[in-house]
Every structure is written in C-alpha cells, then in structure tokens.
Amino acid sequence: MKRAFIAALGVLLVALALYPITATGYGIRFMLQLFMWVALAQSWNLISGLTGYVSFGHVAFFGTGAYATGILVATHGWHWMPASLMGGVAGAILALIIGYPCLRLKGPYFAISMLGLNEVMRVLVSYFEGLTGGGSGLSLPALHASVQIYYATGLAAVAVTATAFLIITSRFGLRLMTIREDEVAAEAMGIDTARYKLYAFLLSAFVPGVVGGLQARDQGYIEPMAVFPLLTTITMIVMALFGGKGTVWGPALGAVTLFVFQELVWARFLYLHQVLFGAIIIVVVLLMPRGILGILQQRFQLPRTI
Amino acid sequence: MGVIITPAMVGQVVISGLLAGALYSMVALGLALIFGVMRVINVAHGTILMLGAYTTFWWFQLLGINPYLSLLVSMPLMFLLGVFLQRSMVHRVVDAPELSSLLLTFGISIALVNVTQYAFSSDVRSVEFLTGSFLVGPLALSKSRLVSFAFAVGLTLFAFWFLQKTKLGKAIRATSQSREVAMVCGVNVQRIHLYAFGMASALAAAGGSLVAVVVAIQPEMGQVYTFKSFLVIVLGGAGNYPGALLGGMLLGLVEQLSSLFLTTQVSEAVAYVLLVLVLLLRPTGLLGGRST
Question: Could you give the ipTM of this predicted complex?
C-alpha cells in the first residue's frame, strides 16, 4: 500500500514535470493556479491546522511577498527568482514582527488581530505611493516566463507539502498538535509553546510570500485590492478544511478538488458563483468539519495525520 | 502638510466623531450580544446591516414614506432573519472551535451579499431625505446625521433598559455570564441564543436603516461595518455591553480626529493599529471583557 502510494506519487510528479512539453498556454496557467492554491492551503495548514490558531488574514503574507518581489523586480531590476525568494523572506519577517506579540492572543482574538493586520498592510501599501505605486498599482516589466514560473510554483507546492510531512511526522509536529489540543497541558509538559508557535507561524508565512512573488511576476501587475483580499484567505482555509485540516495530504486534496470544481462549474454561473461558494462553505463547516480525509479516516481507521 | 487646525475644525470633528460613534456603538452592541451569549463572532453582522439599509431604501423609493418609519419594518424583518439563521445553522457551531463559526457566518454573508447584488444590482443608491445642515456658529451639523444619532442613542438606551430590567434581558445577561449556571436556574439557553441573535440582527438592521439616510448604500457596504464592530467590541472588551458603547464612541472619535491629520485611507488603518495595540496591552478590552 505504502509503496504503491509512493510510486503513484512519483509518477504524478514526473508527469507534472513533463507536462509543459505538450501543454497549451491555458493548461500551463491552469496548473500554475492549481499549484498556487495547493501551496497556500498547505501553508495555512502549518499554523492553523496544526496549532489551532486561526490565521484569518493569511493573505497578508501573500500580498507582502507580491509587493516585495514587485518592488525588487520593477525598481531594482532583480531577476524574479531571487526576488520571489525575498518575497518569502518579507512574509517571514512580517510574521516575526506580528507573531511575536499576537500569538499570545487566544481564540477569536488572534483571528481578529490577523484580519486587522491584513487591513493595515493594504492601507500601508496604498499609502507609500513612492515605493509601491499606491492605489494605481505597480507594473512589472514585460516577460514571458510562464513555464519557468510553472516549475517554480510547483516546486513551492511540493516543498511546502514535504515540509508538512516532515513536521507532522516529527516531535515538532507532535508539540504543535499538543498545543492545539490543550495549550495549558502542553506548557505543563514543558513545551515552550511561544517558541514553537512562532516557528510554525514563520514557516507558514514564508511560502505565501514566495507564491505571492511568483504571482506578481506572472501577472505582471499588482495593486492593493488584488493582492490583499479577504476572499483569498477564506478560499485557502476552505480548501484546507475541505480536504482535512491538520493532515499532510488534506489541504492538497482540498485545493485540487475545489479548484477544479471552480474552473468547471463556477465559470458557468457567472452571477451566482459566490452564492455557490457560500453554500459550499456552509456545507463543509456543518456536515464535514474534518474534511474528506476525516471521513475516510473514520471509516477505514487510518491514522489521523496522513 | 502645513495645514492649520482651528478650534472650530476640532469641534467639528469631535461632533462628527460622536455622531458616527453612536451608530457604531449600537451596531457593535449587537455583535457583543452574540459574542457574549454564544462566543460566536458573527461575520455576517454587517451583511444584515446592509439588508436593513436596502429595506429602508426600497421603503422610501416605492412608498415614499418617511424613511425613519422603516425602522418598524427593517428591525422585525431582520430579527426574523437572525432567528432563522441561528435556528437553521449557527446553533450547530456554538460550541465548536472559532474557525467553524467564523467560516460559517462568512459563508452566509457572501451568499447574502451575492443574492443582493443579483437582485438589486451593485449600483450605489441613496435615500434623498433631510439633506442640508444646521449652522451653529462655525459648526455645520448635518440634519440627517443628527436625527440618525438621536435614533441610535434612543434605541441603544432602550436595548440597555431591556437588558437590565426585563426578565428576558436578565436571562440573556445570565447566559452570557455562565451558560451552565443559567441553565441550572431554569433558563432555556437555546431560546436565549435565538433571541440574542434576533436582537443583534435587529440592532444591525436599525444601523443599516439609519446609515441609509446618511450615506449611499451598495451590497458590499456591510464588510466595513463588520470590521468596525469587531474593533469596537475588542476596544470595549468582548462580551462587555457597556464596553461596546465606550468602544463605539472611541472609534468614532479616533477616526474623525485622525482624519484631521491623515488621509481617509490611513485614518482607517489607525483604527486597526489601535485594535492590535489594545489586543496586546489589554486583551480584555478597556473596560475588561471576558476571556474565552
């Protein structure tokens, strides 16, 4: 079973690596977006799925990364690859600044503070016009690098999934999950909860920064309203929840399922697709709070962390 | 920037701040009720406000009757909507982790907003009623804002009287202090949850009706009020009802005062910076709230 799974995974990765040879422009773009959602859902899962601290403004790291990359490319003439890595670093720095104080907040207060952070970032980006172009946005020099960005985004998705696997199967992951189940008990057992929460938060902020940078490069134009939307945060949360939060494969599964569903179905309901999205959220929360994997785990008695 | 700030300007913004703050207080009192009683953060609160605003708009547009009378329609309507939402969905996530209630109410909100867009289009609309201002010395007081302020103060006082003096109000406060003890004392907690969500929605609807007379409305207007209500209840102490009043007034004042020195966009960020500062320095709010 395990070997078959690894073999299938290998075949899938090779197929994805070879895909650009035959793909159309639309196909590349579709897969690139898919990778982006996998990476975002996975990174949200690292902090919120494992520790239970709901990051309700995770798109702040995405937007920060997009702007850091955009500024480095457009104003300083950097190549997009190191620039998008710096986007990740920018996301992690923001996480360090905000996480150090805010991770002390419990429950809904942390969620609200993250929501506030996202609003503050959007306003700051609009305000510093000299640096960011303000509300009229920032244009990057034209470049056709969709295939390279396809690989880079795919790599980000694979890397964050591998990170999730390594964390969840390690003592670090156990510590995080102990915090989720009972933080007081975790402290009583000698876990330095503040430190491990911060580590998880930094890891979960790095990848959205990188992905934000790659998106900025791929789109060629960014503006505050487009890179800090609450809806993006909600989408990554719903994807993680739909697949199964707190697991290795759940967020990826949820991202693939919902994204494909969105492309196939929602495009046909142009006017009412948000009603459909709202309905999906309600159904997922009420009927399958542990996601697809949660249901499978219960039925087949699988480990809770796969 | 070299702008000279005169005492009259300061007086003007203080008054504008208080006028806006009373509305914030009333709307946030609703959110505080839901949070106090159920520990649920209702992301759809502003959406219900928006629906209240549309009720007033159509009332005025189609019937042409005084828009303030539409409070008699919008409040009961949204009370019923609130009871329905609580009864059909929200009651199932009351004891779940905060993620469930945040997402669920967001889902409700986005669906309602989208239906409104579909039904009434995204056009910006306004109720042309009581335009113009009273001039008091150097100060200009918008008539519609003043009347809305008076209604907001009246309704808030009524809500407080209700919470303090009536049996149902006492049961609501008892439930928010301790659900178990309230249950032991014979309070039907499930019903209290229904009433709390209904009352909160009626307050939001009142906010919407009063806002509709003052500013232009559109289907996505609610999110701002949801966020502001979050701010207010954090400022005042979540689940602390008098705190919501103080928080609302404070938010109104801070917004207006900072708009003297900064652009409108940045003065919004000031409110969020205040939020994060209060969360960090005094997580239980200025008047002390209840931890979760």
Answer: 0.91
